[in-house]
């Protein structure tokens, strides 16, 4: 289908979610030839996480729009330009009243959630004089001027925000790997938690300024969480370095090498003991030789002639 190819080509997160939520066309079955047919509940394919801070709201709007047959048919026939230009959003006026009511309720819930985030930010920085409307304008995926009704403008803003936000998130993930990689080589060879957080803070400060009222600190912390999750997933090894057979073979080789080293160590120990024995024997002979020399010197000093081989006295011949 042409619209599937276009959607995949431009990587629109909104349309990707719609594709995964579409149900398959049922196949006709001849019930006269099939008996004991038990209904099987089809597994619902969960749309992928877009990484956007309004991801849940986006998915809920998609689910509700999918229940309207007219809008679903228009979506299947629309090309990418119709979606991006906002012409498809005008079809919202033709959906059923029941669908519009559900969309209105979803928008009210989302506005309430955003107001809670704003209140949390105000409480955290304790700045009573901050402009509430300026904070609300940060959330560009809905029309905050009409918090009770889901209008075509809301759908158009949601599509554009999802497209821009998704592209930004993907580019951010790609640049994040290049940002962290040079910092893996440090004094200890590891990138610890404190170093990671310092890198995240450095990059986030380029985009978010705590002193700027238009910069949402809640969104900044959500970006920090996504950064941490992405880096941890990139550093986890999903593939084993060795199979079980290779590991066993390697262990056997190591065991053989250890045995060879043990034999060599035993031989060296025996050689050391033999050398020590020879050294001790030589020292004993040297000691005995010195003792004999001393005895001969003493006898010479006392005038006793040296003894012969049989112990007899030897006299010097008279001249």
TrEMBL record:
Keywords: Cytoplasm, Golgi apparatus, Membrane, Phosphoprotein, Repeat, Secreted, Signal. It is found in: Cytoplasm; Golgi apparatus; Membrane; Secreted. Residues 1-24 form the signal peptide. The keyword Mitochondrion does not apply. Its main location: cytoplasm. It comes from the Eukaryota. PANTHER family: NUCLEOBINDIN, NUCLEOBINDIN-2. This is Nucleobindin 2. It comes from Saimiri boliviensis boliviensis. The lineage of its organism: Eukaryota, Metazoa, Chordata, Craniata, Vertebrata.
